[in-house]
């Protein structure tokens, strides 16, 4: 079997699985009435979008964006490094998104605890009825 075909197949397969995960998590946020299930679906959506950002910034046969030898670098080495190194910006953005996602998840869990203390349920349909 051709290695190039297998690599393309696996990349496309991973992308379709990632898009399916995003679709299922959006369905969980919209269609499920329980707040805990919405928080879990939102967490899965955030993680899937982080993986998508890394996936889009990936280049096959790339090297890490780190120069090890800085004392004897020629112009050809810099050009070779710039063309073969992966872009570190998506990785930095994903690290930031992970920290922000953790803070948002903790806030939503705290909010769900307060809703449970006030209304005695986490079902959004019952909370909507009790509000009025």
Could you give the topology of this structure?
Blueprint: H1 3-31, H2 35-56, H3 75-84, H4 89-119, H5 124-131
Helix pairs in contact: 1-2, 2-4
Explain this structure.
The protein has helices spanning 3-31, 35-56, 75-84, 89-119, 124-131. The model has no long low-confidence stretch (mean pLDDT 88). α1 (3-31) runs antiparallel to α2 and α2 runs antiparallel to α4 (89-119). It has one domain (3-131): Helix Hairpins (Orthogonal Bundle), CATH 1.10.287. The protein has 132 residues and is mainly α.
Characteristics:
132 residues, mainly alpha, Helix Hairpins, 76% helix, 0% strand, elongated
β-strand number: 0
CATH class: Mainly Alpha
Main sheet properties: none
**Helix count?**
5
Give the oligomeric state: single chain
Shape summary: elongated
CATH fold field value: Helix Hairpins
The secondary-structure class comes to: mainly alpha
Rg from Cα: 22 Å
CATH hierarchy: architecture: Orthogonal Bundle
Q: Detail the poorly predicted runs.
A: none
Q: What is the straight-line distance between the termini?
A: 65 Å
Beta-strand content bin: under 5%
Number of domains: 1
Helix content: over 70%
Order of helices and strands: HHHHH
Overall pLDDT confidence: 88
């Amino acid at each position: 079997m051709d290695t190039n075909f297998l690599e393309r197949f696996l990349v496309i397969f991973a992308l379709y699985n990632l898009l399916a995960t995003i679709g299922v998590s959006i369905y969980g946020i919209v269609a499920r009435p329980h707040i805990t299930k919405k928080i879990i679906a939102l967490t899965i959506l955030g993680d899937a979008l982080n993986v998508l950002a890394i996936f889009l910034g990936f280049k096959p046969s790339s090297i890490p964006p780190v120069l090890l030898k800085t004392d004897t670098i020629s112009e050809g080495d810099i050009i070779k490094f710039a063309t073969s190194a992966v872009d570190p910006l998506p990785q930095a953005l994903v690290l930031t998104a992970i920290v922000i996602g953790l803070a948002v998840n903790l806030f939503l869990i705290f909010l769900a605890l307060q809703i449970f203390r006030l209304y005695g349920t986490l079902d959004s349909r019952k909370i909507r009825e009790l509000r009025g």
